[in-house]
Fold this sequence. Notes:
Number of strands: 5
Distance between the termini: 27 Å
Bound molecules: adenosine monophosphate, zinc ion
Mean pLDDT: 97
Low-confidence stretches: none
Strand content: 15-25%
Number of helices: 3
Number of domains: 1
Amino acid sequence: MSEEACIFxxxxxxxxPAPHLATNDEAIAIADISPVAPTHYLIVPRRHEENAVxxxxxxxxxxxxxxxxxxxxxxxxxxxxxRLVFNTGAGAGQSVFHAHLHLIAGRAFSWPPx
Length: 114
Ligand code: AMP
Ligand code: ZN
């Protein structure tokens, strides 16, 4: 997918409006449009890479920036129990090929995941 066609690049550029729940220089947090739990945020790096490992290869510090937003959101909202997920590859459930970290909380989660 080209960056021009990428929905998360459009959100980061402001072409598609989405409230920014938290931001830093490298990443933004938005609400998932189709939540799977009472709390479902997406932590999205500003720089387009297909997945988390590609992001790490390009600049490991950007992964840290994603986790800084997890820290900010969970601290601010008092979320103690949550799940963090990088779906990587279509076979693992990835549907948007711009790296993003799911932060989901607010209900019990089963293990192993479906
Ligand atoms: P994944 O399937 O892991 O690639 O996750 C992509 C996520 O992006 C899904 O949970 C979608 O519900 C979410 N999503 C798709 N389009 C938007 C949008 N415009 N705003 C917010 N979340 C979106
Ligand atoms: Zn993108």
